[in-house]
Amino acid sequence: MYEQAITQYLQTHKYPSISLKAVLFDMDGVLFDSMKNHAAAWHEAMQLYGMTLSPEEAYLHEGRTGASTINIVSLRERGHEATEAEIKEIYQTKSDIFSRLAKPERMPGAYEVLLKIKQEGLIPMVVTGSGQKSLLDKLNHHFPDIFKPELMVTAFDVKYGKPNPEPYLMALRKAGIQPNEAIVVENAPLGVRAGVAAGIFTVAVNTGPLPDKTLLDEGADLLFPSMPAFNEAWETFYSEL
Predict the structure, then answer these.
(1) What is the pTM of this model?
(2) Are 200 and 182 in contact (CB under 8 A)?
(3) Counts for the chain of helices (H) and strands (E), in that order
(4) One short Pfam family name for this protein (predicted)?
(5) Which of 3, 68, 129, 211 has its CA at 20 to 30 Å from residue 189's CA atom?
(6) Residues 198, 129, 159, 185: what is their CA dihedral angle, to the nearest 10 degrees?
(7) What pLDDT shows up at residue 63?
């Protein structure tokens, strides 16, 4: 069922096989149903500082560091980048708004597929542009005994956020593996672009409002309509690697 996508990836990157050792998960929109809250918080925060970032546009920026998102909007609307102080203040405002919204639920299907991955002896990793201080506690609460702190990549680990491949290359480095020994699971166009640029087989899971084409155009090797669909397909997909 997935043989064609796998063969095409191997031919493109000239790898003999995918020898899977780790699965690299984006967080927001993949592990947590949190993107609608992030989009709303970005929209409100930018309005408070006289700038416009629609909830719809926020989905297109998903995966960037907060500083990158702020600077893109600031350049467009003010003609210059934000100062370090402004970035810190705007991002804190956005974080405060986000924290007041209803707590995001665990994405359906995410815990189930993570348990299967662990049972296969594979390494699950989080690769996120988030800089939330409470990130590990949040992950441990919703996904107990799944993730190790030394095998996570956050905004604090990289200079360049997605769509730069650095976050996924950092994940490979932390795990001590090669690109053909991992797969990426992403819901965001910029995250897909980052995974593809890192040379990793990239699975897109369309959990948001964007058309499938937006994710496929960034180079996704496979696309699933939801995390439950990815979970249901896992055994077949894994057996074909």
Answers:
(1) 0.91
(2) yes
(3) 11, 6
(4) HAD_2
(5) 3
(6) -10
(7) 80
